[in-house]
Amino acid sequence: MNEQLSSSIQKIKDGFDVEEHIFSDEHSLIIAPDDVVEICQLLRDDFYFNLLSSLTAVDYWPEGDPRFHVVYQLYSIEANITLRLRVAVPGDEPSVPTIEGLYPNANWHEREIWDMFGIKVEGHSDLRRILMPYEWEGHPLRKDYPLGYEEVQFSFNADEIDKKKPYVKE
Amino acid sequence: MVQLQEVTLDELKHLVSDRAIQGDTMLLNMGPQHPSTHGVLRLMLELDGETIINCVPDIGFLHTGIEKNMEAKRYEQAEVMTDRLDYLNTVGNNLAFCLAVEKLVDLDVPPRAQVIRVILTELQRIASHLVWLGTQSLDLAAMSMFLYCFREREIILDILELVSGQRMMTTYIRPGGLWRDVPEDFYDAVQDFLEMFPKRIEQYHGLLTKNPLFVDRTKGIGVISGEDAVAWGLTGPTLRGSGVAFDNRKARPYSGYENYDFEVPVRNEGDVFARYICRMDEFWESLSIIEQGMEKLRELDGAPIRSNNRKFVPPPRSELGTSMEALIHHFKLWTDGFDAPAEYVYMPVSSPRGELGVYLEGDGGNKPYRVHWRTPSFIHLQALPVMSTGLLVADLVAIIGSIDIVLGDSDR
User: Fold this and answer.
1) Which residues span the domain enclosing A87?
2) Within this chain, do residues B21 and B76 fall inside the same structural domain, yes or no?
3) Strand partners, A56
4) B368-398, pLDDT tens digit by residue?
5) A1-37 as b/e: b if 16+ CB within 10 A
6) What's the DSSP call for residue B1?
7) Confidence (pTM)
8) Which of A50, A140, A144 sits opposite B230 (nearest CB)?
9) Which of B250, B359, B381 has the most A C-beta neighbours within 10 Å, making it the best mutation to test the interface with A?
10) What is the domain count for chain A?
11) Per-residue pLDDT tens for B253-279?
């Protein structure tokens, strides 16, 4: 394991209450929502994790407790090391603090997790939907959001399906 | 459960300056059908005369819910959707997804398959850069460049059709190897391309690099410093044009890239022209990688192209008639797929546009629990306001071309 990576992980373990998870040489730290900004600041300033590679979320509905995990993928170009932070967020009014001030490109990522998962980002400068239309209801990547499909119309059932289509009702 | 978000005009006021509210500046809508926005990108521009005060990108017109759809498909079915993300880098998307799956289930890939993967992704990189070059020059009024670039791109698409049967949506790379070995004609087809293409690169340089009209519209335009570029998460040629030599093929090699001898082109100016030169130089590097790959491929003639791990990779067709075990594996894999552990991995690769990352999480079953695509276009578009503020609308067109966006990549 890289020396800088181990020292950064050790530093965080000393200062915060974290849990480490290792799979396939990838290190993940599971941290508390309140520590996100502080840990990111520490990693960026002291350990040169200067690139926010990716920011996303995972929904563990219905069994998972807490329901969501927000995943921050940090990378250091200088040291060529990568570290993942995972923040457990409860399903009841989920929210995480913004890290836009540290990594400006978090802006759109955080809009995406609001749009797709309905996780509010506290302190965000422009929290609007990004991929879905602005009047959309619900958050599509949640596990309790149905995938939906369109029935294929054949000659034998064309009329039947046509009746169900919204434009017919109007 | 349902949360309805209502947006009123007041909530959008923070997107523009106070001068726009007073009517001193003009708000102009650009796109989503504007030809220079490279697909369905909409920009809201705040203009003072022709100077851009503010630029607000609006994306999502091409959102197809691929991440959600993948959760409902088995791993080998989900791969088919990866082609539809970044439709100029289909082989690269397949590769990224397969590498992520292989990392998750710890699957080996034989050397011959790795070499073919590298050759095809580099061919695809050239094809993608050709589309970029054609459209970027077209935006800057060099009409004939577009025709030349697409002429050459056809040859690469023909090679992809030769190996996979499809020009664009190949799904040729599979977890554990490839769909099948390359045909005999592949060697000659690639060789012909390698002989033809260097002359064409010289021709492109002859048409553009010293062309005063082109240089005037690209030099000193859309400048972003290396530090800003990293902060905004830019990667690929867009970052390397700003003097940061970062490429996943060098930093975190995959598919045996560490065995190839190639350079990562870097320029320090950080403007549209620097990004242009970076991509033009990448043509040469890709050609060199393909050439080295073809040599390795000839040495590995007849070697296996799929992993022998039958729990994840279907057995060859020829074994089905003679081996009961092979038949069971075949049946199991094509009806039920394979299971992956309840773990998560992140697999970054270097797409023609930048770092393409796949976050893949399994749940112990045969379908991915969560797939997230870290797509370069999404992140590059975000930096568009930083690069374009204070410039003219005509410069914005050059900048959009230079960050090489694909809206299928950004909207997913």
Assistant:
1) 3-138
2) no
3) A71
4) 999 999 999 999 999 999 988 889 988 888 8
5) eeebbeebbeebeeeeebeeeeeeebbbbebebebbb
6) -
7) 0.90
8) A50
9) B359
10) 1
11) 999 899 999 989 999 988 999 999 999
